[in-house]
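Troubleshooting: if your tokenizer reports a length mismatch, compare against these two reference records.
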Amino acid sequence: MPPNTPRILHVLDHSLPMHSGYTFRTRAILKAQEALGWQVRGITGLRHTAAGPDAEEAEGLHFTRTRGDVGGPPAIREWREAGLLADAIGELAKDWRPDILHAHSPALCGLAALRAGRKLGLPVVYEIRAFWEDAAVGNGTGQEGSLKYRLIRALENHVVAGADRVVTICQGLNDDLVARGVPAGKLSIMPNGVDLALFGTPAPRDGALAAELGLGDGPDAGPVIGFIGSFYDYEGLDDLIAAMPALITRHPDARLLLVGGGPMADALQAQAQASPAAYAIRFVGRVPHDQVERYYALADIMAYPRKASRLTDLVTPLKPLEAMAQGKLVAASNVGGHRELMEHGVTGTLFPADNPAQCAAALADLLDARAEWGAMRQAARAHVAARHDWARNVQRYQDVYQSLLRRNQDGLSTAA
């Protein structure tokens, strides 16, 4: 970076102290950038709903909150929401004076950054973590091809066209943008990753917790298949529950541990209660973030049976990487997002999506192959360290930022 370290203002939907995959990726990026000596701050829009002061420190990171109320019909309301965030960016810039605005999806954050960037004369990086029209379909709040879907897609295209550089978290999103006509030279990939400094020696198995959940303890305890995350339809947990009768036919002592909650929680519990394998399925509900490692430690295999869709084919999830970093075996459906993260039989096990029978067979085969577990765990951990450690990946931002700062400086020199 230039001798005078530039200031990067991250424009965000929400942030810590709220907990989500979105905020954890943000934390990893900002912490890794700070470790390189960069100056960073975050500013959130109206969708950050946690109570707190206008200027807040969370886990050592500094965030500014946007305040205000918006009304009106859909589209007009969102336009005003982006306007409030753009105004807040302008106010913060008077004192903190950022050199680059780095907006993160959804597109409303990108729109606000574009509007502020034009007024301030600052370059804008727009980072896409998912296409939010597809995410809405995946979580049941939208329908593919609907007017709302098309409007969000059009807004996304507008922001991508206006941004100086565009970053995606994976190859699938990158390729989709190229197919839309976005110049490949405008795009960069910043892969999803984990902070390996947070994953040292995995937590030991908590025998008391295992006994409390009826999972057994000691050498006679059966294998545990785990899932920790949000219970959305696209996660395919209904297929995992449907796979359990066939799995326990081959491995009668196998148990399924489901930790989390979400829109599908009630339906999944009803399905499990009606299953002949009901006795082998445990629901824990949501647990505090600082307790999650205790539940990871109970599982032998973490399962991610995502259904096939545009969302799951284009986007790489974070959870399998965290599991591999924790030294867990990973079994996942062969959707595009999973294929980009792991190699079947080397760093993980892949099985056909939307197919409980194949899911059960893959899990049973993996349980039969205990002699290979050590090598697979080591290969998975090495893969994460080489390709998905934030301490390394964050340096990819350096080329993006440098190119924009040089271009901005050249423009100022020409104007002078």
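Reference record two:
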Amino acid sequence: MTRVLHILDHSLPLQSGYTFRTRAILKSQQAAGMDVRGITGLRHHAGPDNRHGGPAAEEIDGLTFHRTTGTSSGPAGMREWREITRFAEAIDRVIDQWRPDVLHAHSPALCGLAAMRAARKHTIPLVYEIRAFWEDAAVGNLTGREGSLKYRATRALENRVVAGADAVFTICHGLRDDLVGRGFSAGKIGISPNGVDMALFGDPGPRDDALAQRLGIGALAGPGSTGFGPVIGFIGSFYDYEGLDDLIAAMPRLRTRQPGAKLLLVGGGPMDAALRQQAAASPAADAIIFTGRVPHDVVDSYYSLIDILAYPRKQSRLTDLVTPLKPLEAMAQGRIVAASDVGGHKELISDGVTGTLFVADDPAAIADALADLADNRADWDQMRARALAHVQTHHDWARNICRYQSVYQHLIDRGTDGILSRAA
């Protein structure tokens, strides 16, 4: 039985796209007969108050996660190297205790650098997986600036890990092509696309009419109905790059063609206050509903109210290179999806086939695309079926983990000088 130790920035019980992808990978590998564990660095926080601490290891949802304890301090640069050192030492201890066959590190580069130290010390193959370039994510989150010293330093660290790993995976073609453009061998870099655990998705549950009543959404729209729907929805984090300001700006124009249209925004984040202020000043203010963050175990009730899931990401280096998870989850639930035509969405959605793509950064284009979708409800059942089939065929973790297994075995058989033969 192959033992794989996953090196992670953070994990369950925290909830994020990062932790949900991690859970899906580990649970699918378990189901395939592999022995897996995870270890998190100092940036994983325990408890509702986000303090460091908690147990040195814990089992969550049948998965074992080891923790790196302590803190790191000092000036920028020195603090990060101390963080990497503590993380590498924690990985060393798990290796001595558990004896994994492969280390599988997941971005950011700090995880990769700590794993690289441990892999060299113990002569264990290292696989490094890039989910996003974190320097670009910082720009998208408005916490960094493209071309700054920190941006360039983060990129340089990423390059160092890619060069030092025995095999590399990215989640999409955009990231892989960017690395090849930097001079890295295409044969070393495979693709493990974003996916969903299809075992978690069955037929969509019934509409929660009581919740709809509390939110003031009204009755579910149907073909030929007037005065109600469609309900346009977004469920996730409110970051600037998500383009929710454009979605809000599209509502007055949308309501000229669909007078009963509502916008349901579920979640929160850095742009929350600005978006609420924009919505309050909109001529369509009465049709825009904010719920705030909701517990994960009731999210399905909010999904049940939404006719069209909208993902209006702004065009940027981040959104062109990275594929998001949320549209795949929506398609797996049999939902209609509309998204901007950034590169990350184009890898997931075929316009007019599995969903609708509209021009990014253009509220008028958003409004027209959503209105057109609402006018063509008769096509929705077929679009839902095609989208679900696409996810089942190309984005089911039960199938996708085979990409990892073949690479793991290749590296184990060849030793740490093994090179990834194209697995994507």
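Descriptive notes for reference record two:
- The chain has a mean pLDDT of 91.
- The first strand starts at residue 3 and ends at 8.
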